[in-house]
Amino acid sequence: MRIGLEVHVQLATRSKLFCNCPTDPAEPNRNICPICLGFPGIRPFPNEEAILLAFKIAKALNCRVLKRCFFSRKSYFYPDMPKNYQITQYEAPMGVNGWVDIGKKIGIRRVHLEEDPARLVHPGGIGGSDYVLIDYNRAGIPLVEIVTEPDFEDVEEVKRFSKKLLSILLHLRAFDPLKCSIRCDVNISLGDTRVEVKNVTGLKHIERAIRYEILRQEKLIKEGKEVKRETRHFDEKTGLTTSLREKEFEDDYGYIFDPDLPIIEGIEVEIPELPDRMVERFVEEYGLKEEKAKAIVYEGPDFASFFEEVVKDFGKPEVVASWMLTHLLKCLNFNHMRLEDTSITPKEFVEFLRAMEKGRISERYAKEMIKEWVPSGKKVEEFLKEMVSEEELRRAVEEVLREHRKAVEDYKRGKKKAFEFLIGQVLRKVGGRADVKEVRRLLEESIDLK
Amino acid sequence: MDVERVARVARLELSEEEKELFSRQLKEVLKAFEVLDELDVEGVEPAMHPYEIRNRFRKDEVKKWGEIKMPNKEGEFYKGPRVV
Amino acid sequence: MKLKKLNEKTNAFITLKEEIEEAELYFSIKDNICTKDMRTTAGSKMLYNYHPPFDATVVERIRGKGEILGKTSMDSWGFGTFGTNCDFGIPRNPWDLGRSPGGSSSGAAIVASALKERNVALAESTGGSISCPASFCNVFGLTPTYGLVSRWGLISYADSLDKIGLMARDLKDIALVMNYIAGGDERDPTSYQGRVPDYTKCFGEIKGLKVGVPREYFEHVEEEVKEKVMDGISLLDSLGAEIREVSLKLTKYALASYYLIALSEASTNLARFCGLRYGLSAEMEGEFNEYFSKVRGSGFNQESKRRIILGTFARMAGYRGRYYLKALKVRRLIINEFKEVFSKCDLIAAPTMPILPPKFEEIEELKPIQVYAMDQLTVGPNLAGIPMLSVPIGFSRGLPVGLHLMADHFREDLLFRVGRAIQEHTNYWRKVPEL
Questions:
Q1: How would you label A283-318 residue by residue, b for 16+ Cβ within 10 Å and e otherwise?
Q2: Has domain C3-252+328-430 been given CATH number 3.90.1300.10?
C-alpha cells in the first residue's frame, strides 16, 4: 500500500499573499479588496513574510531550496476563483527533494507557495440548491503546499508525520492553530490504481478518510472488482469517500509564468532550532525521557522555551515537566488558551513551584489554583495573600482537634498516620489555603498543650 | 486544433459557424507561426519580462479597503451558479 | 470646442463627459484605463456598465493638471490594429472618415489630432497600439519603456507587454505629461524604481547621434510610406546624425513570438469575466460551466473569442512547449538582438506602419493572419519593452505617414531629443484635419 499527501497549510501572516487584507477570522466578506477579488486593472503585490516563511518551511523539510523561483498562473474555472486562475508555483517552487524523519524518511517532493481560493457554502448541502454562496475572506490567503512522495505504508505513519509536521510549522511560527487551517489531498493505492481524496480538512479527518478509503479498496479487491482510478470527496459527517462526478467541461491548467510578479532570487533564511534537535537536547540537558521531551517540544516553541526559562531558575526539570504537562497544559486546553495568552510568566511559575516546595501551598491547593490561575490573569502573590490568617488557622486547628478526638488519641499512642490525617483535615477546613508547615506546627503545639 | 475542445476549456459558447470559421482561420495563423520552427533555441532562457524584475516585496501589514460593490449579494454572501 | 460634433463624425469617445470646464490643457483617456468617476469598458460589451472602484495611478497623477474630456474608443481589450473591433461604434480616421485611424488606441489618436485645443491623449500599447494610430493620424505617439509608467488600474491585455503612453500634436506636451505619470508606484511591483529625468529638459543637439536603419524593416512596406520615411531619415542626416545600416535578422520571427505570448497571457487575463463580480451577466440558472460559457459567449466579440481560443491553445498541455515556451525563448533572442544593435547605435529609425491608413472595405477583405501581419514593424520593439516614438513625417495622398524611432531601455531622453529636432524642422505636426 502506498499513501501520498498534498498538504495545504495556511500561513500565519497578518495580511494576504498579494494584498493587505487581514487574514484573521471574520464575518463573511469583510476581508476583501479589489486585488483579492481579481477586479480588472489590479496588480498583485507579494507579501515578503509569506515568502520568507515558505522558504523556511522548505529548508526545515530538508529540501534543496531553489535559488530562483517565480510564480505561475494555473487556469481553471470555478465560482471560488476570483480570476479563474490561481497564482501558484509550477516549474520553479521554493524547494524540492526533501524529507521528514518519522523513524523512516518520508520524501518531500516539493514545497511551494500559492493563493487560497474563496470559500463556497452550499445551502442545503452539495447538490441541494440552485446556487452557491461565496465568501471571499479566504481568497488570497497564503498557502504553502507540501507534496510528499507516496512513502506512507499505513495510517500510523501518516499520523506520526502529521504530528511532526505540525510541530515543525509551530516552531517556524509559520502556522497559528487558532486561525490557520490545514487541508489535504490524499492519494491512496492498495494495488496498482491510485485514488485521490480531495480537500480533507484537519489532521483528524485525514486519518478517518484514509481508514475508510483503505477499507473500501480492500473490499473491492476482495470481491474481485476493479478499483477505479478517480478523484473522490470526503464527507466529514458520514466519514465516507464518494466519487466526484465525471466532468464534462475539462480544465487544462495551461500554466504560464505570471508576468505581474517578480522573480524571487537569492533569498537566504535562518531557521530556529527544530523540534527533533530540541527533543534530543532536552533529553541530554535535562535528563527527560524522550516521550516527555516530545510532549513539551511538540506543544510549540513558546511552551518549550517557557519550560527552559523555568528550569534555568528553579532546576528540577522532572518536576517542572510534570506540572507543565499534567496540570498546566490540561487547564490551557480546557480554556482553549495558549500559554502566551495567559498572564503566567516563567518567573511566576517558578514562584508557584517554590511556594509548593516550601510547603506554603499544598499540592492539592496548587492543582486547584492552576484551574483559576490560567484564565484569571491573577498573580501568584494574590493567591498567596488569600491564604488564611494565623487566627483563622488556630481556630481551624482547634475545631479539628475537637472533631477528631480519636485521631488525636491515636497519634498520642504513636500512630504517625493519624497526624497526617489531622493535617489533611485542617487543610480541608481552610480550603487548602494554608502553609503546611504552619499547620504542622500549630497542631503539634495544640496537641502538646493538651 | 480542436476548436470545440479549446472553447470548452476556455468556457466560450460558440455557434457552429464560429467553430468552423475559427477552425479555418486559426489553422492559417498557426501555419504562419510555424516559422518559429526554423529557430534553434537550445539553451536559451525564456524571457518573462523585457528585463529582469526581481524581489519586489511588500511588508506584511494590514490595510482595510472599505466598501466594495458587487452584484448578487445574498445576506453576507455573494450568490454564484451551482457547481453540480 | 466642438467635441460632440467630432465624436459624432469619428466615434472618438466611448464615454464623453457631460460638463467640460475650460482649461489650458485637456486630457482624453483610453477606455482600458480605470477612472473612478467614469465608466470603463475596455471597448467591450462585457464591461458596458462597469464602474471601477479606483482610479488608475496615471489618472490620479493627472487629476488637477488639466481637464479630462472622456474615455476614448479602442479595439476591445486592445485586440486590434484598425479600431474595427470596438463594441461601441467604429472609430474613423479624421483625415479620411472612410479609413481606419489605427488601433487599438484609436480614439486617443483621433482626439489628439482633430481637437484643435491643446490636449494630450493617454493611451496604451501591447504590440503597437500607440505607434500605429499615432502614425495613421499624424500625431506624436510615445510608448515608454515597459515598467516606466505604472500599470495599476490598466485593464490587462498582456502583462509582460502592456505599457501606458501618450499621444499629442506637440512633443513638448508629451514631455510635460510624462513628468506627471512616469516613475515608480508602490501598487505595481513591475513598475520602475529608479530615478526619472525631467523629460521637458531632454532636448538639444542631435549631431553625432548614431541612427541605425534596419533593412528588414523596409521589406513589405508600401513605396509611398518608404519614400516619406527615407525623407525623414535624410533630414536626420542633414542635422548631423550618423546614419548606418543595421540588421535585425530576427524580425521575421517577432510576429509569431509576440502573438503567442500576448494571447497566452490575454486568455488568462480575460478568464475573470464570467458574469459574477462585475460586467455583463445573465440569469444565473444552470451549472457554473454553462453559465460562464453563456455569458462569455455573448459578451466577447468575434475577434476576442478568436484570440482567447488561440491563446488558450498555445499554452495547453502538449502544445505549450512548442508554442508558448518557444515564443518566450525567441523573445529572449529578439531582446538580445536589440541590445546588440544599441551597443552600436543610439537609436533605430524605421517606418511605423507598412501601409497608409486603409479603407474599411479593404480591412473587411483581410484574413486574421493578414491583419496580424500589419503589426510586423511594431511587435519587435514591443516584445523587447524598449521605448519608441512615432513621429509625423509626411503625407502621401493626403494620408499621414509616421517615422518610428526606437531607443534602448529607459532612453526616452534620446527619443525626445531627436523627435524635437524633427518637430523643429518640419511642419507636418502642425496640421489639423478639417472635419
A1: beebebeeebbbbbbbbbbebbebbbbbbeebeebe
A2: yes
